[in-house]
Amino acid sequence: MLFADDLVLVDESRAGVNMRHEDGDVSLEGQVVAKKDTFRYLGSMLQKDGDIDEDVRHRISAGWLKWRHASGVLCDKKVPQRLKGKFYRTAIRPAILYGAECWPTKRRHVQQLSVAEMRMLRWFCGHTRRDRVRNEEIRDRVGVAPIEEKLIQHRLRWFGHVQQRPPEASRGRGRPRLTWDETVKRDLKEWNIAKELAMDRSAWRLAINVLEP
Questions:
Q1: Which pLDDT belongs to residue 3?
Q2: Where are the alpha helices (DSSP H) in the chain?
Q3: Superkingdom of the source (predicted)?
Q4: Domain coordinates of the chain in residue numbers?
């Protein structure tokens, strides 16, 4: 079941479906429908507790799947490293950051994303951590900005859309608003950007843009 919001269970009798027990379970033709603490929705993993641990792991796995599909090119020494970096930016990083604009990230989430990204970049550059080549040098070589900065850019871009929406558009989206708002406030403070700037589309786009090396 990929889409749960439009699902309707229909039966000829009340006894056939939607019979709630004392513990809150739902049964279908006598079989109890199992409860899930985590489920997939529109490509994202949602958790009962509202955290994003499973979603972050799922997106990293999706990035590695894209990476493996293109490993024949990415690991080819004849392919220029800048071209490999461009492929990473256009095909692999978007898979990792899908839905990230609504993530209320914690330090551990950012660390997981950064570690996965650097493993990919070092791998197609032919280096390991034992080579003692600095991350910044690898990034400059392939032309890829830190994924942490791109994550903030995604979140602030979405925040700009929220700020610019018409007053009557009040429907929310994604994770708990308070936690996400706190994350955005942290982003704005870290980048020294006033939230009022979001009302100027051109200035906002320029302020949150992350340049690739």
A1: 45
A2: 53-69, 71-74, 81-87, 93-96, 107-125, 135-142, 147-164, 177-191, 201-208
A3: Eukaryota
A4: 1-35, 49-100+107-146, 151-171+178-208
Token pair for 69: 């599909």
How far is 18 from 141, CA to CA, in rounded Å?
58
Q: What is the pLDDT of residues 18-73, one digit of tens each?
A: 555 455 667 777 777 777 777 777 777 777 777 888 999 999 999 999 999 988 88
pTM of the entire structure? 0.73
Per the CB < 8 A criterion, the answer to whether 174 and 106 are in contact is: no
Task: Express the helix, strand and coil content of the chain in percent, nearest 5 each.
Answer: 55, 10, 35
Q: Which residues partner with 27 through β-bridges?
A: 19, 32
Per DSSP, the three-state class of 38 is strand
Q: Which residues contact 1 (CB under 8 A, 6 or more apart)?
A: 7
CB proximity list for 19: less than 8 A, separation 6 or greater: 26, 27
